[in-house]
Amino acid sequence: MKKIALISILLLSFIVKNSYSQHKKLYMPEHISECYQNGTRDYSGKPGKNYFQNYSVYNIAASLDPPTRVITGNAKINYQNNSPDTLNHIIFNLYANIYKKGNIRDWSIGDADLHDGVNISALKINGKAIDMTSKNVTNRNTALIIELDDKIMPTKTADIEITWSYPLPAKGNIRLGTYYETSFFVGHWYPKIAVYDDLVGWNVDTYSGQTEFYHDYADYNVEITMPKEYIVLSSGTLTNEKDVLSKDILKKWTASKESDIVTNVITAEDRKKTGITKDADKLTWKFKATNLPDFAFATSNTYIWDATSLLIDDKRILINALYYPENQTFNQVAEISQKVIKMLSETAVGMDYPYPQMTAFHGHYGMEYPAMVNDGDGDYNSTVFVTAHEITHTYFPFYVATNEVKNAWLDEGFATFLPKIIEDALIENNNSLQGIVDIYQKYMGTEIDIPLIINSDNTSGFAYRYHAYGKSAMALLGLKQAIGDVKFYKSLQEFIMRWNGKHPTAYDFFYTVESIAKEDLRWYWKPWFFELGYPDLCINTVDIIDKNYAIIEVKKVGNYPVPIKITTVYKDGYQESIEIKASIWRNEREKYFFELDNIQDIKQIILGDDMIPDKNKEDNIYTFN
């Protein structure tokens, strides 16, 4: 049998006492380092003994007027200060002010949807009315900052009541808005208390369109009032379906909750006649949700409604799809969502989908919300990916509340890489993982190829998308190859278990992986996440000893570690390959030697393949005379 004879190399096991992280060797900003010193985070990758998280309970009553698109709402909020700090002010995120005239935006949205900003008609904190024109009130783009006369002491709560209104966009939809004139996806729509964390205190980053969001967890009791024939679905569980749905629609939806088969709850024929909802001018839909980082809803008087469910362990997950009657593939989204949730729960993540439901709304592009997605409609392949991508976000940044403003790669990377595995499983003869490598290969080493540890809000344009989606997916795929599937998935699951309902940083992820892999992974983290550079291997020398024997030197020219793959092509057409994991480059190793025998039978040797990125592939082939 023909084979490649390898020079034996002794690979030493690394034994690191106390911590595999060797944390002092990874660059860490001072404010993050202080969290480890203060005990809110731990070098094991776990939350520290002093970790804290503030929490809210939102009781919201709101209505949407379809002709004017104006949302009017009132929220009563109980805010719990679990931090050791006295809060001298409180910050609300008014994300809808991205449409406010004169505010900062990352791209032009035209003038049609611009407005005067979210109108706060009343605000009380602990029963005291706040004068919105006073010097204690500051509007900073999408942030509303209130200086407090009565501070919120540690372990104490504040009772807040706020009333607001603003118009939804009709045309310039950024992740939400109006679709087909009378259908609406409503996200980032209520004054939401900003995150106060151990890292920086109040997070006052404002929203300008590109980087996304960072939320604290809360319980929600939400009432949405709409005209009849409008159905409403949301991030929460509908608790009064008998009061709002007609008898026939309710019967079909109830049946779908116990079935794996997709039920057409509302059909195109149903929409041609009245009787979708109870017969009343207006109906109030009531929802409840616990421990969610955000709350969104969708409503329409024209959309079709498909529903099904999926049994995971002893729990049924409800799955809904709302879509326009004329569509390309959205009529398959309920079934696709079911398959995606099953794969995420069983293999792609390997942890149960954490929420009671998922609703996919036919909007545009793709945007994630807790238990909801707002997706466009395309061909089957793109629909599978965008559905899988947005539903994967359930785990990051919702079940695990990563900060998308600072570390977008920590959710977008997983939500790009893991869905590619799902896409390849659901689509015959598909190799979408190749796309991850191709995108990275195209832009690596260019001016947009900046280290992943750089905050996402310090990037812009296509550099942001490459940083958050393309390069990060490649780095995670490479990590999986480097430490192996078992350790990779065990690390991912441990990270989720440790940090669900909490706010991890990139370092918490690094240290968790090392604690599971039981290995110092600085050789991987430093180049792929902290350094400028790229992977580049070459066949540096071929030392022909005699006609039967040669020694080949593979050199690591670039600073990013990747696997070594050597394919030997024989003169009779036979080929064989060997692959060595990227960990061969640990300890700053730069050369690897292997030997070949029977070289008189060999035509050429090829280094690498299409799945291994390499800056210069011209020096990856050697042809024997």
Low-confidence stretches: 1-21
- N→C terminal distance: 23 Å
The first-level CATH class of the largest domain is given as: Mainly Beta
Give the amount of beta strand, in percent: 25-35%
Query: What structural class do helix, strand and pairing data support?
Result: alpha+beta
Number of strands: 31
Mean pLDDT: 94
CATH topology of the largest domain: Immunoglobulin-like
Q: Compute the CA-based radius of gyration.
A: 27 Å
Strand order of the largest sheet: 5-4-8-2-1-14-18-16
The main sheet comes to: 8 strands, mixed
Helix content: 10-25%
The number of helical segments is: 13
Would you write up a description of this structure?
With 625 residues, the protein is of the alpha+beta class. It has 13 helices and 31 strands. The strands form seven sheets. An eight-stranded mixed β-sheet has the order 5-4-8-2-1-14-18-16. The protein has a six-stranded mixed β-sheet with strand order 17-20-21-22-24-23, with helices on both faces. Strands 6-7-3-11 form a four-stranded antiparallel β-sheet, with no helix packed on it. β12 and β13 (201-202) form a beta hairpin. The longest helix is centred in the C-terminal third of the chain and has 23 residues, at 461-483.
Please summarize what this structure is.
With 625 residues, the chain is an alpha+beta fold. It contains 13 helices and 31 strands. It has an 8-stranded mixed beta sheet with strand order 5-4-8-2-1-14-18-16.
Layout of strands and helices, then pairs:
Layout lengths: L29 H9 L16 E11 L4 E11 L6 E7 L25 E7 L2 E2 L7 E4 L2 E10 L4 E11 L9 E3 L3 E4 L5 E2 L2 E2 L3 E2 L15 E10 L3 E4 L2 E2 L2 H4 L2 H10 L6 E4 L1 H4 L10 E11 L4 E4 L3 E9 L2 E9 L9 H16 L8 E6 L3 E4 L2 E4 L4 H13 L1 H6 L9 H18 L6 H11 L17 H23 L1 H15 L6 H12 L4 H9 L6 E10 L2 E8 L7 E7 L4 E6 L10 E7 L4 E6 L13 E3 L2
Parallel strand pairs: 1-14, 21-22, 22-24
Antiparallel strand pairs: 1-2, 2-8, 3-7, 3-11, 4-5, 4-8, 6-7, 9-10, 10-19, 12-13, 14-18, 15-19, 16-18, 17-20, 20-21, 23-24, 25-26, 26-29, 27-28, 27-30, 30-31
